[in-house]
Design goal:
The protein contains seven helices and twelve strands. The chain has about 270 residues and is α+β, with helices and mostly antiparallel strands. The strands form two sheets. It has a seven-stranded mixed β-sheet, sandwiched between helices. Strands 11-10-9-8-12 form a five-stranded antiparallel β-sheet, with no helix packed on it. β6 and β7 form a beta hairpin. It is globular. The termini are far apart.
Length: about 270
């Protein structure tokens, strides 16, 4: 198979640059933006050799996994651009849910999989990480902010030794290819990017994201540097911060950090 845009993405005017193998789709997209590319354009591969996730953690996509990035130059502030990551999570969750149902029908049955969204940027299957999202933004010549949203999905293999245990679609019994997943993702992106609408529709995105949120209303611990905050995952605010309600009743906005389900003592983060 070859990478192709889904019909909705193609009709909306998205373009696609596909690679057999590349160092990083995010790096390639941002390099094109610095050279004048304004998007919207996708960059996709089934083998990424030098990708990275949050906090510069390596994100390698062995042959058969999906590494994809979307670039668009926008007239928005960095804080508004940051909320686009929630739309990306929704797009991928929808694509995964649809393809897993179709795969189950082809194989004459199978249990329905539970996909959820983990703040700020992961897609989970059960409580295992299936995909990660990395958003980067940079002001470019000619005006505007180049926003790159990288989405890496474990299709055939999952890394070991990650902070959150990982899984893959193959391990879950979902037999789909990276190309098929990309087409569904590109269509989902066209839908949820439209709802987001340069941040004007974030209230709706926030509502949809919370409907799919992992750990909402449950105990969480957030580790950021040397500090750990414990409490209950209460909600998202209108900037996309996680709101944690502590045992003392204080509502603390979290702007960054690694989220663990349960208390620090139970997760080993203390």
């Amino acid at each position: 198979m070859v990478f192709k845009l889904g019909p909705r993405a193609a009709s909306a005017g998205y373009r696609l640059f596909a690679f057999d193998r590349i160092g990083s789709t995010n790096a390639e997209a941002m390099a094109r933006a610095r050279a004048g590319e304004r998007g919207p354009a996708w960059f996709a591969t089934s083998e990424q050799t030098a990708g990275r996730g949050r906090r510069h953690r390596p994100w390698i996509a062995p042959r058969g996994n999906l590494a994809s990035s979307i670039i668009e130059v926008m007239d928005v502030s960095p804080s508004v651009a940051a909320t686009l990551g929630f739309a990306a999570g929704l797009a991928l969750e929808q694509a995964l849910r649809r393809l897993s149902v179709e795969a189950a029908m082809r194989s004459a049955g199978g249990d329905e999989l539970n996909f959820s969204l983990k703040w700020p940027n992961d897609v989970l299957a059960g409580r295992r990480k299936l995909a990660g999202i990395l958003l980067e933004a940079e002001a470019v010549a000619g005006g505007g902010l180049a926003v790159v949203v990288g989405i890496g999905t474990n299709v055939v293999a999952a890394p070991e030794g990650t902070p959150t245990p990982a899984t893959s679609l193959a391990a879950l019994g979902v037999q789909v290819g990276a190309e098929e997943l990309f087409a569904a993702l590109s269509d989902g992106w066209a839908e949820f990017r439209g709802i987001w609408d340069l941040g004007r529709g974030f209230a709706e995105i926030r509502k949809l994201w919370l409907d799919r949120a992992a750990g909402l209303g449950e105990a969480v611990s957030i580790k950021s540097g040397a500090s750990t905050i414990e409490g209950t995952f209460d909600t998202l605010d209108d900037q996309g911060c996680m709101i944690v309600r502590t045992a003392g009743g204080q509502r603390v906005p979290i702007t960054a950090g690694d989220v663990y389900f349960g208390s620090a003592a139970s997760t080993g983060t203390s």
